[in-house]
Design a protein that fits this description.
Length: about 140
């Protein structure tokens, strides 16, 4: 399967590990732009203002939509963040919505978080992996 990895860039090192794990299982894994550079500390994490400008300048939302469209599914790396277990941020929520509309498989590495949009996340009917990539 071709799987697009989604998640907060703060977890770029984990993205690299998950990519390696998926490839070891025979999958093709797609990372967000610059994830490898963030993981190697070649780029500093951006402030929210810089992040927005970067997303607009490089049309990153549409770029990742095209990746999702060309994939078999997405894997949301929803690690704990900001005091929220299994956090799913705005971009990952958007990307999961794209995958759902495109009838692609939606995988969450961990369970659905308790957030304002938990019901919407549940409605996407993600496949919960409980941290086990072999469930894909």
């Amino acid at each position: 399967m071709k799987i697009v990895i989604c998640g907060s860039m703060i977890f770029s090192k984990e993205m690299m590990e998950i990519k390696d794990g998926l490839e070891a299982l025979g999958h093709t894994a797609i990372l967000p732009r610059n994830a490898e550079r963030y993981a190697r500390s070649q780029l500093a994490l951006e402030t929210k203002t810089k992040s927005v400008k970067h997303k607009i300048k490089y049309d990153l939302i549409r770029e990742y939509y095209r990746e999702i469209k060309a994939s078999d599914g997405i894997l949301v790396l929803n690690y704990d963040k900001g005091g929220i277990d299994n956090y799913v941020g705005g971009n990952s929520f958007l990307e999961a919505g794209f995958a759902h509309i495109l009838k692609k498989k939606v995988y969450f590495l961990f369970g659905i978080p308790k957030m304002l949009y938990s019901d919407e996340l549940k409605a996407l009917q993600p496949i919960i992996l409980d941290g086990d990539l072999k469930k894909i």
